[in-house]
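Inputs:
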Amino acid sequence: MAGVIDIFVELPLSHRRKDVVDQLSANGQLYLACAKCTWEDRVSPAAAVEPRTLLRLPCPRCHGRKRRFVRHLVRVPARCEACGRETTFETVPWKDRRCPNCLSAKLALSDVEVVPPFPAVFGELDGMHTVLGPGSDKAHPWGVSGKEDARRVRDEVKAAVQLYPDPQFHTLIGAIFLRDLRSYCDYEDDAGYTWILQLEGLLLQDYFRQTGDIPAGPEAVRVDELATASTKIPALHASLEHNRAMATYSLPAR
Ligand SMILES: [Zn+2]
Ligand SMILES: [Zn+2]
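Outputs:
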């Protein structure tokens, strides 16, 4: 779930534009909801979108014209270790959390949840709003096939890494998006969950190699172990074992 792992999230530049950053959900994505039928579409800010123009696009489900950005935020009850004040934050992982009373950052966090929860199935706003370039603007239903979702995220991260000056942050956002997909979607394909986990592990491993950010190393190993444990398909199992060995090997000797 968003915000649970101990990795500090720094947003890519493409996500930090004022009109974009104020609409982002906790996994660094934009979600557009229909006021009439509640259907949600996702857009990646890496597609250099204009949030205001997105609001003019009708709902693909009911053709309703009333749409708004919905922010899926992390809700964390916390207790200040310095002054004892109890607070509940509704926040995003790239924002500093401090005690409102004494400004201490030493907070004991309890159960994290996402409010409102991420949708289990949702659409993709395509056409010109894609980081993938022309020819890739076919509809993508998220939350149906784990294999297809993993492929789409892989292609998007690959494109963003080539396009932008801060590839490491696009890699991390990709991993976080995958984590929410596997937490909230109920995939129809048997190995779907495993595909998501496998790519998530690889992206975390990449991010760790690019930045040396310590918590990302053990997290990559943990996710790869989950991927290995989740599959019974021998060929896939072997390739995952290989990834796991690589991730373990790249951990720093500390
Ligand atoms: Zn609708
Ligand atoms: Zn305090």
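Remarks. The pocket of zinc ion (ligand 2) is lined by residues 80, 82-83, 85, 99, 101-102, 104 (CB under 6 Å). The chain has two domains: 13-69+119-253, 73-115.
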